[in-house]
Amino acid sequence: MSDSGRPGLGWWLLILPALLLLLAFYVAPIVQVLAVSVTEPEMGLGNYERIFTSGSVQRVILTTLRICLITTVFALLLGYGIAYAITLASPRMKGWWILAVLVPLWISVLVRAFAWVTLLRRQGLINNTLMESGLISEPLPLVWNEFGIIVGMVHYMVPFAVLPMLSSMREIDPRLLAAARGLGASRGDTFRRVFLPLSMPGVIAAGVLVFIFSLGFYITPAILGGGKTLMVAEWISLQILDLIRWGLGTMMATMLVLAILVTLAVFSRIVDLRRIFGSGA
Amino acid sequence: MSDGRGHALVLRGLSKHYGAFTAVDKVSLEVGQGEFLTLLGPSGSGKTTILMAVAGFVAPTAGSILLDGSDITPLPPEKRNFGMVFQGYALFPHMTVADNVAFPLRVRRLSRADRDVKVRAALDLVQLGQFADRLPKQLSGGQQQRVALARALVFDPALLLLDEPLSALDKKLRAELQEELKALHKRVGRTFINVTHDQEEALSMSDRIAILNHGKLIQHGAPGALYERPRTRFVADFLGKSNFLEGIARVPTARGFTLEAGVHDIAVRLTEGEAPPPEGKRSLLSLRPEKIGLLTDGATAENVVGGSIVAWSYLGAGYSLRISTDTLGELRVVLPAWQASFAPAEGLPVRLGWSADAAVLVEDDAP
Predict the structure, then answer these.
(1) Positive or negative CA dihedral for B11, B14, B18, B23?
(2) B107 φ, ψ (degrees, to nearest 5)
(3) Of the candidates B234, B244, B347, which has an alpha carbon nearest to the alpha carbon of residue B289?
(4) Interface pTM (ipTM) of the complex?
(5) Buried b (16+ CB within 10 A) or exposed e, B349-367
(6) Nearest residue of chain B to residue A177 (CA atoms)
(7) Looking at the domain assignment, is residue A113 inside a domain?
(8) Domain shared by B155 and B37, yes or no
(9) Exposed, middle or buried, B112 (CB in 10 Å: 0-12/13-18/19+)?
(10) Residue of A92, A95, A253, B129 with fewest CB within 10 Å of its CB?
(11) Are residues B241 and B307 in the same domain?
């Protein structure tokens, strides 16, 4: 920082190489791809018109939004419980809890998706157990539909929900909780009136993170959806790789990028995004 | 405030162990109705643990806590109905001042109308009526402290517990709030239990002080009695400053005795009912610096010793002198500036004198 408190020219020069690299190899190709959406198959907004006219395009968008919202809600509920338990745990148990949250992150998303397939398929562990115990006579449709996708996605997203909420819960002064009890609040009241409101910034942060992450999800929906339930990412790949409809695929990619930017813009008014993504203190 | 009277609290053999560490060691203490009691001690003396046990946050290992005769030891904090002002105040940052004060009423399911009336009364009590809609972080430290007080008093608690309530404030504000807190105690007539390590705060606010060290209750009593008649070296040293004179007790009578400190004999008069130490017993005297006078030429006192000034400092209201005496080692003397008929200087020869009832016989509990 220069004396005036604004970054001086020297500092900008320092990050210039990185900036150029990013522009040349990241921003430029993306812009080029997105530009295809208004040039293929012909110049104009024809591809975008499809959003209002094509039932299949609308269905993909709605399915994606629905799955993402449901995933976010369940990931937040589960994640909140885990983050709360970690916050209250003894220092030694905390380490184990956090390890248990992080280990799934280190396992390939493919492995996890196929693990769910073996559990959920018609002759999978769950259906077999239920059939043998006589609770059901027909296997339940647990996979290759929206249910399967949501199970897999929630499983993948829970750690991403836990971490921002955990850091927000850690900032809550434990004396406030003691004060609430001392002033006559039951455990329930203490949670509802003090802990929950103070942890809300973390919940919002986790929600934004999980929702944005879910929007572009590809592998898990592709495997657990079995090609029957399409989400945006898989649909884009289908258009471009299989149907060679570049214009339509890139139009949807543009919409995806827009949706992410809009979500960020809306929530940046509510919470400090720099804190969510870990820059600054 | 509903009954307008305080409640009485009794600690009976209260102990708290953390593994092998004894935080509180068999403390028995009574707090009378409407009394302002201060638990005073250095850090690690167990004073905060006792307060937390009274509040219900710490389960005692042994002993019991009685409120107006009934045992409250097993009750959780929210069932005890005690107001508490935490160190650093612990105001809820997401609530306004009014909502903070209303919190204890809200969790007691009071109607909105009742709540509003009580919140307004409590805020007026601490002169913060016009700040009701502010957030805690928009208030100064002293104002936050008063919000914490209002919040702790608004629900007519049986006791008010204060955990180092003034420690976060600067010296001037602290003195101001000490007076305010004392006045507040008079106004609400409730039983206050205060924890502090600041002896000045304890002396100026309390009806009674309980001095703790290493988890043990060393002595308790009115501030004046404690200051004038400390029972042990620790009390004399922790509450104010003191000189200590060590020697052998000689010729004990009911009126007093002589302490043979090396070549110097010190005359000691006992208060009524106080027993003299047996002949030949090693004994310790506490002598407050302000009870020693500088003798002018020709004047005399029951105890006199010559010496010279080693160091001195000017305190505004008085002088603090360190004097190397001919026969009693170094003594600290504090005398009012207006009484000093001379300009202190290092090396200046002086004669010190004090009356036979100035020194107090204390037990030597130094480690």
Answers:
(1) positive
(2) -70, -15
(3) B244
(4) 0.78
(5) ebbbbbebebbbbbbebee
(6) B90
(7) yes
(8) yes
(9) exposed
(10) A92
(11) yes
d(CA A31, CA A39): 13
Which chain A residues are Cβ-neighbours of B51 within 8 angstroms?
Answer: none
Query: Average pLDDT of each block of 10 consecutive residues along chain A (281 residues)?
Result: 60 87 90 86 84 88 94 96 92 90 87 90 88 87 89 93 92 92 92 94 91 91 85 90 89 91 85 57 36
**Which amino acid is present at A186?**
S
Contact state of A185 with B107 under an 8 Å Cβ cutoff: yes
Whether the CB-CB separation of B85 and B129 falls below 8 Å is answered with: no
Do the chains contact at B77 and A182, CB–CB below 8 Å?
yes
Whole-structure pTM value: 0.79
Instruction: Assess whether B284 and B258 both reside in one domain.
Output: yes
Instruction: Check whether residue B26 and residue B167 sit in a common domain.
Output: yes
- The domain spanning residue A209 has which CATH number? 1.10.3720.10
Q: What is the chain A residue with the closest CA to B79? A: A184
* Cα–Cα dist A158/A71, whole Å: 9
Min CA distance, B52 vs chain A (Å)?
Answer: 10
Mutate which of A171, A173, A183 to test chain B, going by most B C-beta atoms within 10 A? A183
Cα(A280)–Cα(A225) distance, integer angstroms: 39
Using the beta-carbon criterion (under 8 Å), do A179 and B84 form an inter-chain contact?
yes
